[in-house]
Amino acid sequence: MSDVVVSPARGKNDPHLPECGLLLINPAEASFLARDCPAPLWRRHFLFNSNLYVSGARGVFWAGPSVGAPMAALSLEKLIALGARRVIAFGWCGALASSLRVGDLVLPGSACSEEGTSAHYPMASPVEASPHLRAGLRQAWAAQGEQVFEGQVWTTDAPFRETREKVARYQRQGVLAVEMECAALFQVAAFRGIELAALLVVSDLLWQEPWRPAFQGREFRVRSRSLLAALFLYLERLAVGAKE
Length: 244
What we know:
Strand order of the largest sheet: 5-8-7-6-9
CATH superfamily: Nucleoside phosphorylase domain
Strand content: 25-35%
Distance between the termini: 38 Å
């Protein structure tokens, strides 16, 4: 295999990250969380056209937003170079399965790719999200009485080209939902040898006609932010366990 021209690396002023952290996909959650991360408990750093917050006291980091496979992969590569080893991605997804409702939680085990980034990280066998992190997330949400739907998701670069034919085809294959980052994130994580899982909240229903953008509503925003707060508490417990 040819040597790459540019490798991810720590820069002169870059921080050393704790092992455990959160990668936020959407700008809304990133803005919300940034307002709740006061200095000096949290130190803010730039991450390309995104942000990185690090707390030595709490032993965790979070970064975002990172919309789309290329940006998500770029961010993850840098986080790994800075020391990340266990990463949970949090984002939204559109439901394909008619059993899913707005606000439901999806825990992808794998992703079918319609994006262009993951092919640049070749692996000898198909990749999946970290079984260890998925098991921990499953147990954590079950303890709170939350149902988690597990299965495959469809990752696309083109949300405005999610045709009815494609939706029907992926439904027949048992794919649960569509989003824009998981295939690339899973591939990069496997390629670099770190653990990564994704937790997605259903933001709209592609099986429903007419399609309605529920993510624009207040009820969805409240739900998403409450899930994010619970996820952050879980991440801090994960970080404590990693040190023991």
